[in-house]
């Protein structure tokens, strides 16, 4: 029997779907970042949802996207806010591609400034501009290669765990970590580093 959803439950579901689409968050990434079971998320936001997003689940998702409490309960012009009118990934009149620089990956509404890249950059890297995200380094874990406040470019569609790989930091304060598929509950890979600028 199909469950009948209230208007607030439908708003919550559509808000989550829109946030995931705009911020290029997969269901696996959302599952890992919120500790909500992957299959259960499908019941909430899949093509044929059979469960309503409750208050506790909504709060976990709001925390993940750095939203205030009850944010999911209201309609928002999320697409407009996410790009902040910058035309993210689009070519400018002088054939450069405009890319916003976000303060943090999981709060991709706080834009500090913007950068411009030649289309050839994306061709050489073999990535879609829409899958490229810029942010500032916020810690010392990759010094001296990446320093605090360096611009870091991530290919956010390359976020699969490669079983048996090692996470290696150039900084001696951060020990190596062996990555296994079983680590999905404690590790979220946001993408592959392809660009840095000091």
Description:
This protein has 198 residues and is α+β, with helices and mostly antiparallel strands. 28% of the residues lie in helices and 17% in strands. It is built from 6 helices and 7 strands. The strands form 2 sheets. Strands 2-1-3-4-7 form a 5-stranded mixed β-sheet. The protein has a two-stranded antiparallel sheet with strand order 5-6.
Topology:
Elements: H1 7-22, H2 27-34, H3 38-45, H4 55-64, H5 78-83, E1 97-102, E2 111-117, H6 119-125, E3 132-136, E4 151-155, E5 166-167, E6 177-178, E7 192-197
Parallel strand pairs: 1-3
Antiparallel strand pairs: 1-2, 3-4, 4-7, 5-6
Low-confidence regions: 78-87
Put simply, the count of helices is: 6
C-alpha termini separation: 57 Å
Order of helices and strands: HHHHHEEHEEEEE
Coarse shape: globular
Query: Structural class, please?
Result: alpha+beta
Give short descriptive properties of this protein.
two-stranded antiparallel sheet; 198 residues; alpha+beta
């Amino acid at each position: 029997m199909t469950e009948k959803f209230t208007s607030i439950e439908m708003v919550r579901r559509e808000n989550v779907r829109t946030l995931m689409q705009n911020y290029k968050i997969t269901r696996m990434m959302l599952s890992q970042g919120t500790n909500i079971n992957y299959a259960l998320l499908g019941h909430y936001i899949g093509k044929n949802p059979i469960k309503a997003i409750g208050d506790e689940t909504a709060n976990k998702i709001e925390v993940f996207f750095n939203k205030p409490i009850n944010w999911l309960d209201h309609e928002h012009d999320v697409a407009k806010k996410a790009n902040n009118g910058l035309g993210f990934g689009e070519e400018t009149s002088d054939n450069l591609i405009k890319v916003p620089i976000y303060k943090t990956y999981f709060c991709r509404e706080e834009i500090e400034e913007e950068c411009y890249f030649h289309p050839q950059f994306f061709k050489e890297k073999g990535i879609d501009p829409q899958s490229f995200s810029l942010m500032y380094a916020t810690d010392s874990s990759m010094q001296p290669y990446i320093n605090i406040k360096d611009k870091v470019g991530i290919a956010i569609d390359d976020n699969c765990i490669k079983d048996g790989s090692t996470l290696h930091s150039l900084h001696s304060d951060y020990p190596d970590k062996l990555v296994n598929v079983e680590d999905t509950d404690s590790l979220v890979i946001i993408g592959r580093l392809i660009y840095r600028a000091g």
